[in-house]
Design goal:
Strand content: 35-45%
Pfam family, one: DAGK_cat
Structural class: alpha+beta
Order of helices and strands: EHEHEHEHHEEEHHHEEEEEEHEEEEE
Number of strands: 18
Number of helices: 9
Largest sheet: 6 strands, antiparallel
CATH architecture of the largest domain: Sandwich
CATH topology of the largest domain: Tumour Suppressor Smad4
Keywords: ATP-binding, Kinase, Lipid biosynthesis, Lipid metabolism, Magnesium, Metal-binding, Nucleotide-binding, Phospholipid biosynthesis, Phospholipid metabolism, Transferase
Helix content: 25-40%
Enzyme class: transferase
Family: Belongs to the diacylglycerol/lipid kinase family.
Number of domains: 2
Distance between the termini: 33 Å
CATH class of the largest domain: Mainly Beta
Radius of gyration: 19 Å
Cofactor: Mg(2+)
Length: about 290
């Protein structure tokens, strides 16, 4: 009998059904006994994992960062090891973990890679892999349509971001960490657990999903055009060297705003301020390439 795996797939993911069918056949050739589930609604994913957690040895999730975010809470509860088939638009968690977009190579990692424990972020009780943020990224999420992501891929993020940046207005917030408090006027606060988010941007140049810390940056610009010089550095996480970008890191961070503001976790709006962020060290097992630095 092969290794028993729950295969959860987002049927609306950007990669086509033909590629997915080839990946499923390849997983079976690699010796996996698959219990296949396809969910039209991401909210159904936790209950599917809970229902089958004692029947399988691991969970394989096929989709993008939003699908993975929908699964993460149930994965923590069940402690099933996670295999990833990157079927989404940005695939930022896969990028952080060094998992290629090639589905056959991703299958090989699940079959022959090593299992590593990674950290998770948590905000107001909701787990996240990559980044939780408020401000510009929330507006991008609200405006970015599934159709645009499916048609234009990561270019949809860039086009939508430019629109949102042009309309951006600073808001007031209070950040508390390590017994200190700072009040800011900002257009975006991002709290990262992993390295990549938003289609390949880095939260900090030295961020790691194994460093047992959260990395925060706050974009404290007054005019929309001040963000333009920061954009190239955001690909490598070097924007944090700018004078109008505040940075800090720690295991727990709190953010308060005058009125509740939505918070985006891994590309999905899941909670609101006031926000209590914390890192959960070595919270989940995932399949990665052997000896890959995370």
């Amino acid at each position: 009998m092969g290794t028993r795996a729950l295969l959860l797939v987002n049927p609306h993911a950007r990669q086509g059904q033909n590629s997915l069918s080839e990946a499923i056949n390849y997983l079976k050739q690699l010796g996996f006994d698959l219990l296949e589930e396809s969910t039209e609604n991401a909210e159904q994913i936790p209950s599917v994992i809970e229902r089958h957690q004692h029947e399988v040895d691991l969970a394989i999730v096929g989709g993008g960062d939003g699908t993975l975010n929908a699964a993460v809470d149930a994965l923590v509860t069940s402690q099933l090891p996670l295999g990833i088939l990157p079927l989404g638009t940005a695939n930022d968690l896969a990028r952080t973990l060094g998992i290629p977009n090639s589905l056959t190579k991703a299958c090989d990692i699940i079959a022959h890679g090593e299992v590593r424990r990674i950290d998770l972020g948590c905000v107001n009780g909701k787990y996240f892999f990559n980044v939780a943020s408020l401000g510009l990224s929330v507006k991008i999420t609200q405006r970015l349509t599934k159709e645009a992501k499916r048609r234009w891929g990561v270019f949809a993020y860039a086009a939508t971001a430019l629109q949102v940046i042009w309309e951006s207005r600073p808001f007031s917030a209070e950040i508390r960490f390590n017994g200190e408090s700072v009040k800011v006027k900002t257009v975006q606060i991002a709290v990262g657990n992993g390295r990549y988010y938003g289609g390949g941007m880095a939260v900090a140049h030295d961020a790691s999903i194994e460093d047992q810390r959260l990395d925060l940056y706050s974009l404290e610009i007054k005019h929309w055009w001040e963000i333009i010089p920061l954009l190239p550095g955001m690909r490598q996480g070097r924007h944090t060297n700018s004078g109008n970008v505040r940075t800090l890191n720690g295991q727990e961070i709190e953010v308060y705003t005058r009125k509740p503001r939505p918070i985006n976790t891994d590309g999905e709006i899941t909670t609101y301020t006031p926000a209590h962020f914390r890192v959960i060290p070595q919270a989940l097992s995932v399949f990665v390439s052997p000896r890959k630095e995370l």
